[in-house]
Design goal:
The protein is α+β, with helices and mostly antiparallel strands and about 425 residues long. It contains 9 helices and 22 strands. The chain has a 22-stranded mixed sheet that branches.
């Protein structure tokens, strides 16, 4: 069911706790998995969509559609954990003018695990009482606390595969030229910062089990948000916004250095980043962007005075956590709409930076650097920025291959060195490139 902002279905959702499952990822679809995972907690969607928004709408359009869906939904949640009840998974374009769709989908079945508890959510149109046929259980039409739902059968992983990757529309040399043009725009006073990306193009064999890519990313980068939604698969270190029980949190990342080859070199890389005027300036632009967007929707909004060093397997990041209390009735998607795009992935001032990105990047970013995450019927949810990712173009598949595009970018400010920025993108490509191999 594909929907416009003014066409919202009436849904009925039931959540029950189930026995632990060793590998929840095995329940996801191999060719087009829906997954959200971090530090062992995981949500997967399967069984096809109960409802889907798909279109060129802005985050605000998607938020409005979800509000309409939840206003008429019947939600029976006997577990009451983050990720239970009726849940929708979404991936939105970086630029509303993108040819890539915004998508928000409610799977018929969601299996989740958090804090040692496992659950199953079944969602269907409210006038279709098909719990029994879908979940192989004799659940009554009107569920009660005693209603039991049965998880779908696991699907064994398909054979190992590897991708073929090569230069995209912007080669390493071309990227350095784009950085120089960005520096010219900064010198001319058009912007103080602009984030420029480059791409890699490739293919995987038709029929490739994409859950293997998700598993590789989750295993190698457990502290990131590992996601797979509508062919967009990645492992993002950057939280755009989380809303849970009235608390709003965000993590701002801007400023990056490659990890050192040994302990001494690694310490030196960390210290150099922590004391870099260029990177600290870039980071401050991003923090102020997030604070300014969240203030109208929150109270008691606070952030750390100085960034901390976030250590990932491949890079150091300058990071700042932001926390506040939700004011009013804004949902996670309303805050996504207010926040996106941040200075961390676009630049400052943001509208001018987006114009420069469109001028200098010879490709459509699609959902790269856009919001990706989930939201529940109460408006709570977890949303990241789609980084360290590849978009699989499932609709363009041939009998032999599935095309993909991977992306990585760097923030350009006065004093940036084109070659150093290109090398930074190479480091940022490493998680997805290694996993694709």
């Amino acid at each position: 069911m594909s929907s416009s902002p003014d066409d919202s279905p009436r849904l009925r959702s039931v959540t029950r706790e189930i026995d632990a499952i060793d590998d929840v990822l095995e329940l996801a679809d191999a060719a087009d998995p829906i997954v959200w995972s971090r530090r062992g907690d995981i949500l997967i969607g399967t069984g096809g969509p109960a409802a889907t928004f798909r279109g060129s709408g802005s985050p605000g359009d998607v938020a409005r559609w979800w509000r309409q869906v939840t206003e008429t939904a019947e939600v029976d949640d006997a577990v009451n954990l983050p990720g239970t009840g009726m849940v929708a998974f979404g991936a939105l374009p970086f630029d509303a003018r993108s040819s890539s769709d915004a998508v928000l989908t409610v799977p018929r079945l969601v299996v989740g695990r958090r804090g040692g508890r496992t659950w199953l959510t079944h969602t269907s149109p409210a006038d279709v009482p098909d719990l029994a046929s879908t979940t192989s259980t004799t659940a009554p039409t009107e569920p009660t606390e005693a209603t039991e739902l049965t998880a779908p059968k696991p699907k064994p992983y398909g054979p190992h595969w590897s991708a073929t990757l090569g230069p995209g529309a912007l080669t390493p040399d071309g990227y350095q030229d784009a950085v120089r043009a960005g520096l010219d725009a900064i010198a001319a006073g058009e912007v103080a910062k602009v984030v420029l990306a480059r791409d890699l193009a490739g293919t995987v064999p038709a029929g490739a089990d994409l859950r293997r890519l998700v598993r590789a990313l989750a295993s190698s980068y457990p502290d990131t948000w590992t996601y797979a939604i509508d062919g967009l698969i990645g492992a993002s270190p950057e939280t755009l916004v989380t809303v849970s029980g009235g608390t709003v949190t965000a993590r701002v990342l801007a400023g990056t250095a490659a990890r050192g080859a040994d302990a001494d070199a690694d310490t030196a890389a960390s210290v150099a980043l922590a004391t870099s005027t260029k990177d600290l300036d870039e980071h401050q632009f991003a923090v102020q962007s997030v604070l300014g967007a969240l203030r109208p929707h929150t109270s008691a909004l606070v952030s750390e005075e100085q960034p901390f060093m976030l250590k990932l397997p491949n890079v150091w990041h300058l990071a700042t956590d932001v926390e506040g209390t939700l004011a009013g009735h804004a949902s996670a998607l309303d805050l996504v709409s207010a926040l996106h795009p941040t200075a961390a992935v676009a630049g400052t001032p943001t509208p001018a930076a987006i114009g420069i990105i469109a001028r200098l990047e010879p490709f459509d970013r699609g959902r790269y650097a856009g919001p990706v995450g989930w939201i529940d019927a109460d408006g709570d949810g977890e949303w990241a920025i789609a980084l360290r990712c590849a978009q699989f173009h499932l609709a363009a598949s041939s009998p032999a291959t599935v095309p993909l595009t991977a992306y990585a970018g760097a923030g350009i400010v006065a004093g940036s060195d084109p070659e150093a920025e290109m090398l930074e993108t190479r480091v940022k490509f490493r998680p997805i490139v290694d996993a694709l191999a």
